[in-house]
Amino acid sequence: MLDPSTTPRDLRERHDAARAPLRIAILSYRSDPKVGGQGVYVDYLSQALAKAGALVDVISGPPYPQLSKQVRLVKLPSLDLYAQPNFGHYALRPRHLLSPTDTYEYFGHLSGKFVEPYTFGQRAYAYMKRARNKYDVVLDNQTLASGIHRISNRLDLPLTTMIHHPITRDRTLALEAAQGWKRRWLVKRWYAFHRMQVRTARQLQMITCPSEHAKADIVTEFGIDPDRIFPIPLGIDQSTFRPNPETKRAAMRIITTASADTPLKGLHVLLEAYHQVRNSHPDAELVVIGKLRKGRARETLKSLNLGPHVAFKSDLTREALAREFQTATVAVTPSFYEGFGLPAAEAMSCATPIIVTDGGALPEVAGEAGIIVPKGESDALAREISDLLASTSRQQSRGAACLERAQQNFNWDSIAPKYLAFFEQAMAAQC
Fold first, then answer.
1. For the segment 88-142, what is each residue's pLDDT rounded down to a tens digit?
2. Distance (Å, rounded) from C-alpha 222 to C-alpha 312?
3. Are 361 and 340 in contact (CB under 8 A)?
4. CATH code that applies to domain 253-409
5. How far apart are CA 258 and CA 250, in angstroms?
């Protein structure tokens, strides 16, 4: 745990005497509030820091986050080619040549590379160069681009970085799932940016991550000194994700989130397990928060003839997502790997019993309150789901334990001060 006393006394006295709030810039290359956890994390964190008395700007590329009124959004527009890859983006237009960064983004996208982290880093550096006197400290949300490192190296601004988990994990699992040399080549091409992220991460001095497991993986995968990594858990919006006595739970409803449906998320494993569950619980229903995309999950859904029994819901508001958790009988996170596992924690905050795999930090999040199964094993997952669906008393006891753990461990009111101490330590190191 970080100790605020590590900040030099003169630095602390200067801030206290002036009673000047800490001015924080959060950089996020994409912050979609409904797809993946990045936009949710940025919103949660910025709101918590503002509540704690800091002045917070979120500097983001599209898609932009939904933020509280206390937080200012600074938009750094891109070509946004990855939002609609088949909507005329293969046709060269004059706007694609307006700057070297735009041109690189266009041709990088055309060649099958994911270049948004790099191009955002270029734009973020240009912005911070103009606005360097507006901020006391910068937090990069896993951009890990060369432009981000220049903020510290050339502008002399205290720079911190959040690494949710090493992108090499996604790359490895995507390669394992790829069939044929062509598909493997495309995966390698897409994830080419991982080399930049590894190089940048090794140059950074102040890194945070959401779990001890994520820290261990970052050390192993990126080759970073563990003394430079400070785990701070994520928090939950517990005013939204909470039990609702007026909401009746369904008797046989399984819920999972797969907003970023990749091999890493293990949705196909849950579908295989659900197919077995239906043998003993034919009334069991499965709700997937996310869109069904081309890939293994779609193939599994078709081969097992589960289409009529699985509901896919997307573009939900945070309130709507909370209602889905509140009405569910059990929430399942079947991922092969998670650096934290935000949906599992959100379900726990709604007093919904959870079943998670042993992938990454999920056991760290679930603790003894959750049920843990080996990743990739649909038989074991099916047994635990069936057993939980068969016992109302077990559902209630597990749900109560999940709620208690969430309230104690994932409360932003206690997590925000840890971030502030982390920032002050970075500022002290820069002096």
1. 456 667 777 778 998 888 888 888 899 999 999 999 999 999 998 999 999 999 9
2. 36
3. yes
4. 3.40.50.2000
5. 21
Mean pLDDT of the chain: 88
Q: What superfamily in CATH does domain 4-235+411-430 come from?
A: Glycogen Phosphorylase B; (3.40.50.2000)
Q: List all residues 6 or more positions away from 33 whose beta carbon is below 8 Å from its beta carbon.
A: 39, 40, 43, 63, 65, 66, 318
pLDDT tens-digit series, residues 350-381: 999 999 999 999 999 999 999 999 999 999 99
- CA 211 to the chain's CA centroid: 12
Q: Show the CA angle centred on residue 82, arms to residues 81 and 86, nearest 5°.
A: 75
Cα–Cα distance measured from residue 324 to residue 372, given in angstroms and rounded to the nearest whole number:
22
Give residue for tokens 């990743």: 375
Q: Where are the domains of the chain?
A: 4-235+411-430, 253-409
How buried is residue 223: exposed, middle or buried, by Cβ count under 10 Å (0-12/13-18/19+)?
exposed
Do 253-409 and 4-235+411-430 fall under one CATH topology? yes
